[in-house]
């Protein structure tokens, strides 16, 4: 490709509205442009990389035995009514009426459509298992799209759905997909980690997220420094060393206007880990919808709301209002576990604890020397706390670390959550009607474009892995003489003939501009033809960001191919 | 691919709701399934062909120097306000509010988005020309989606947009795209015809549609049997031999309850070509919006409304009501050109005509011996009639033929229709701000899947051209012996190793079922391994629909490759 004919509008400066590095660089290097909130154009150079990512994903999915199909973005509302998600999915599901007033939506995911398709064609267990996938544009009406391709509204996803006659077959395919994902992210050159994920209100046995490790990641993941245990903090289980309190009779202490755990601990000169933080919630969704629930964690722990929701069988929880707190006998700022008229859950690190301090459910008053077993009735223990760095691993004696991650993949044993309402039925080996069990497997393809940049950049721009680079070679012509142009064109032709993707910068620009653009765009190999070198019969060749060496012009193509071989392994 | 692992749900019978052959066969052969009105899933075998069509389109667009990008399906409403099409596009533009009540729409085409993009990046004439294209899903909320992929609502299109500093450059690119389209449709093995198309209310100099010739086509195209003149009937210009009428004074004749041209001609025993058919319309859109207009054609001609709209500068025309006819002095059933109080257009074949019969604008009365020049005031002549088979060519002395066509491509010199309101400006060579001039070029990629089937089928199923077939070879195992299975697998492996796409039917089904499916799906070459042949050391090889020959099993792969060579040319 000749640079002067190529639409790659690079920018000198960081765009004002871009916060994360990938967003800045993809804009600056002319890979993407914003159309509207969370919606982007992929410019020619960006699309080249996107297609290479897609090709890796497709290749590994095909190798794993999945079959590609293509489903539509516009979906009929009745399928979502049937699955029960029309309302439940929330405002990220963009709904509209078509010209015949038929309720429709833009597909944020395709469980409904694939179940509808398979339910109409599936007859016998002999057709199972099957794993169908697509690479396709999706739409989720995010309330706050941000970070460019990281959290867009229209985005490109690879989504796969597998159907099985039994759980064992699903478990095998889950492992198969897990391995395929590891291959995909490895081939994309990413530092990533599969982590256990919460299965949430969907249920199911197993779920893993795949995270690209990056400071800009929106997710917090916990992982052991000794074993391979890793999980989303929404799910991570860990232990901690606890302070020992004083064994004595339960007593009251005046704490005028002192409410937060830290302040109470300071006021009483005790370790904040001896405080009991009591939080009151209203359950949302599920059979417990609307119930007021109190939950306690140590004063220096954070309650993980998804764990709480999971523990009570709700879809989620919301903080209770002051009125709701009063209704169960609590006093805002001085809520404690003793005497509350509602269901009470305690984090399991509070089991057997003594010498605690807790709100007394009366203004300006706390209880001291609380003994959980002695002083509280009918409590339920559960894992409610969020894992902190330094916690003891839930699996071994190692220490937990926290990292930021970008979720780029998710595999899920769905079970019959969708296949049952969508009636994906088949005749089993015994001749009986049975419901297929399902897995689903997603990869954020356009998000990967950003995630790769988050791991592959330097101060000059993007440093694409050779197998994903939009072009392998940046050929730069320095000088305007006929000789330098002719030599450049000869090299250009030879590289093309050798099957090398090359971007030839033959623009009438200063060398500084050309080098800046080459570094910004991030092509792995630079070949430079200049008047001075050419006078000695030489070209210069080097890796992006490294030194260039002079080679005889006759050897330039062979040297480039060698270097390319090295760069792509 | 092993058939037993492949999701290709074939049907024995024609689906009840499919009218045209491509819709029937694509459903029966398991290529597509309906999701909702005008919206389809492309099943794995269908997607394989779709991708091959896309690859041909992409290759020719790239060769022609166009650059691929990818724009979103969801588009912001303000761009459509800016171009002036938000209301004008009509109900096929699906509009909706997102969760922030922001007006948005699903892209039925991308002039607005591409102009917005280019306007933000274009600075100098040096960046021009550029031609940007995408292959992407679009949505048009058709009032009556039909014929499967022929007229869907969500469909896949290749759309290209070129930007130029001057008209000469646009004309050159138009020709370049025209040639690329000819290459594309030729490589797809189609019998097609580029035809001149009406530029409609958009204006512009030049427009051609590319039609695949097929009985099921929704369009009627006219073409000369002697020269290469071809045009959509909306635009086709042709001549005809006209009857000579009697020269005499204008007179009145009683025609009680006789109104239609045919009935009046029969009643008066004259050639129906001597009748004047006078039609009254109301103009829609443009500066003439709402104006009542009368238009005359010969009694045996049909008035082509798009020609009339074009002639008066309207977007379209609608038949006037009886009240509107009265308002200009007409009497329904007896309307004639003489004395009407409105603008009057006559088809140009009426210029100089004498001895005509026309309505008298009084009930049960016609005029005879009408002489257009003598008896009518201030008439305007224009080409208003629809070309009929047998007409004289508008370009040579040949004879016009009519054919049905499926529009699969459209190239258009847009001029500044979009670039002006969307402010696609650049600094020209003289340093002045100028508006870029544009072309646009569309291909209905998913419609092509259907159009190809309309030309490539027989009573047994689809007969794919070898370069588009989902698999090149259908390998059919007949019999259940270990030997036949082993021999089949060996051939299967060898074909795969030779880079041949092969679908191996190793199902536990009767031979009749396997052959029926193979013919239906339409793979070009069949290789059959059966117990009987194998006993003699033979396989059978043949083209789909032709005879098979026995060849020694050791030569089967080489023979297949030979046959494939022949089939792909």
Automatic annotation (TrEMBL), chains A, B:
One Pfam family this sequence matches: tRNA-synt_2b
Compartments (UniProt record): Cytoplasm
SUPFAM superfamilies tied to this protein: Class II aaRS ABD-related (SSF52954), Class II aaRS and biotin synthetases (SSF55681), YbaK/ProRS associated domain (SSF55826)
One biological process term in Gene Ontology: prolyl-tRNA aminoacylation
Entries under CDD domains matching the protein: ProRS-INS, ProRS_anticodon_short, ProRS_core_prok
Keywords tagged on the record: Aminoacyl-tRNA synthetase, ATP-binding, Cytoplasm, Ligase, Nucleotide-binding, Protein biosynthesis
EC number: 6.1.1.15
Domain Aminoacyl-transfer RNA synthetases class-II family profile as annotated: residue spans: 33-465
Molecular-function annotations in GO: aminoacyl-tRNA deacylase activity; ATP binding; proline-tRNA ligase activity
Top-level lineage group: Bacteria
Catalytic activity as recorded in UniProt: tRNA(Pro) + L-proline + ATP = L-prolyl-tRNA(Pro) + AMP + diphosphate
Gene3D superfamilies registered for this protein in UniProt: Anticodon-binding domain, Bira Bifunctional Protein, Domain 2, YbaK/aminoacyl-tRNA synthetase-associated domain
Catalytic class of the enzyme: ligase
A GO term from the CC aspect: cytosol
Keyword Aminoacyl-tRNA synthetase: yes
Quaternary structure (record): Homodimer.
PANTHER family associated with the record: MITOCHONDRIAL RIBOSOME PROTEIN L39/PROLYL-TRNA LIGASE FAMILY MEMBER (PTHR42753), PROLINE--TRNA LIGASE (PTHR42753:SF2)
Function: Catalyzes the attachment of proline to tRNA(Pro) in a two-step reaction: proline is first activated by ATP to form Pro-AMP and then transferred to the acceptor end of tRNA(Pro). As ProRS can inadvertently accommodate and process non-cognate amino acids such as alanine and cysteine, to avoid such errors it has two additional distinct editing activities against alanine. One activity is designated as 'pretransfer' editing and involves the tRNA(Pro)-independent hydrolysis of activated Ala-AMP.
Entry domain remark: Consists of three domains: the N-terminal catalytic domain, the editing domain and the C-terminal anticodon-binding domain.
Family label: Belongs to the class-II aminoacyl-tRNA synthetase family. ProS type 1 subfamily.
Name this protein carries in UniProt: Proline--tRNA ligase
Source organism of the structure: Mariprofundus ferrinatatus
Taxonomic lineage from the root: Bacteria, Pseudomonadati, Pseudomonadota, Candidatius Mariprofundia, Mariprofundales
Gene name linked to the record: proS
């Amino acid at each position: 490709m000749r640079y002067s004919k190529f639409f790659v509008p690079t920018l000198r400066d960081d765009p004002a509205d871009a916060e994360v590095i990938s967003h800045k660089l993809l804009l600056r290097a002319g890979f993407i442009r914003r159309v509207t909130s969370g919606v982007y154009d992929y410019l020619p150079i960006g699309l080249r990389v996107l297609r290479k990512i897609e090709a890796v994903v497709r290749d590994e999915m095909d190798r794993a035995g999945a079959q590609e199909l293509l489903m539509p973005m516009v979906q009929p509302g009745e399928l979502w009514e049937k699955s029960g998600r029309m309302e439940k999915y929330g405002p990220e599901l963009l709904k509209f009426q078509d010209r015949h007033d038929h309720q429709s939506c833009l597909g944020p995911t395709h469980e409904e459509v694939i179940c509808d398709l398979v339910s109409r064609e599936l007859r016998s267990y002999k057709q199972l298992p099957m794993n169908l996938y697509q690479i396709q544009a999706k739409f989720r009406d995010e309330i706050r799209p941000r970070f460019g391709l990281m959290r867009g509204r229209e985005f490109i996803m690879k989504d796969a759905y597998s159907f099985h006659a039994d759980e064992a077959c699903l478990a095998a395919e889950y492992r198969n997909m897990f391995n395929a994902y590891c291959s995909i992210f490895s081939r994309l050159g990413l530092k990533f980690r599969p982590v256990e994920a919460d299965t949430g209100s969907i249920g199911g046995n197993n779920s893993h997220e795949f995270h690209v490790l990056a400071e800009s990641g929106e997710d917090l993941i916990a992982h052991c420094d000794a074993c391979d245990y890793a999980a989303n903090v929404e799910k991570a289980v860990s232990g901690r060393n606890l302070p020992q309190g004083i064994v004595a009779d339960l007593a009251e202490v005046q704490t005028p206007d002192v409410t937060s755990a830290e302040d109470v601990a300071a006021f009483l000169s005790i370790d904040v880990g001896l405080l009991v933080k009591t939080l009151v919630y209203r359950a949302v969704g599920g059979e417990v919808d609307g119930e007021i629930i109190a939950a306690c964690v140590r004063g220096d722990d954070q309650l993980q709301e998804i764990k709480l929701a999971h523990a009570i069988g709700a879809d989620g929880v919301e903080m209770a209002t002051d009125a709701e707190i009063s209704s169960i006998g609590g006093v805002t700022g001085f809520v404690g576990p003793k005497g509350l008229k509602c269901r009470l859950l305690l984090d399991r690190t509070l089991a057997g604890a003594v010498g605690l301090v807790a709100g007394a459910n009366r203004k300006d008053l706390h209880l001291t020397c609380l003994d959980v077993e002695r002083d509280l009735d009918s409590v339920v223990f559960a894992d409610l706390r969020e894992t902190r760095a330094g916690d003891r691993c839930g699996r071994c004696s190692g220490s937990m670390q926290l990292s930021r991650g970008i979720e780029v993949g998710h595999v899920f044993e769905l079970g019959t959550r969708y296949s049952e309402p969508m009636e994906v039925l088949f005749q089993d080996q015994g001749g009986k009607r049975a419901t297929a069990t399902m897995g689903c497997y997603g990869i954020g393809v356009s998000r990967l474009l950003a995630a790769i940049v988050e791991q592959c950049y330097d101060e000059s721009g993007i440093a694409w892995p050779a197998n994903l680079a939009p072009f392998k070679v940046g050929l730069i012509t320095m000088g305007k003489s006929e000789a330098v142009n002719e030599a450049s064109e000869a090299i250009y032709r030879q590289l093309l003939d050798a099957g090398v993707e090359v971007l030839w910068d033959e623009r009438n620009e200063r060398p500084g501009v050309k080098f800046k653009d080459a570094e910004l765009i991030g092509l792995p190999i630079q070949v430079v033809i200049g008047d001075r070198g050419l006078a000695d019969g030489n070209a210069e060749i080097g890796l992006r960001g490294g030194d260039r060496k002079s080679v005889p012009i006759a050897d330039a193509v062979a040297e480039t191919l060698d270097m390319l071989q090295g760069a792509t392994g």
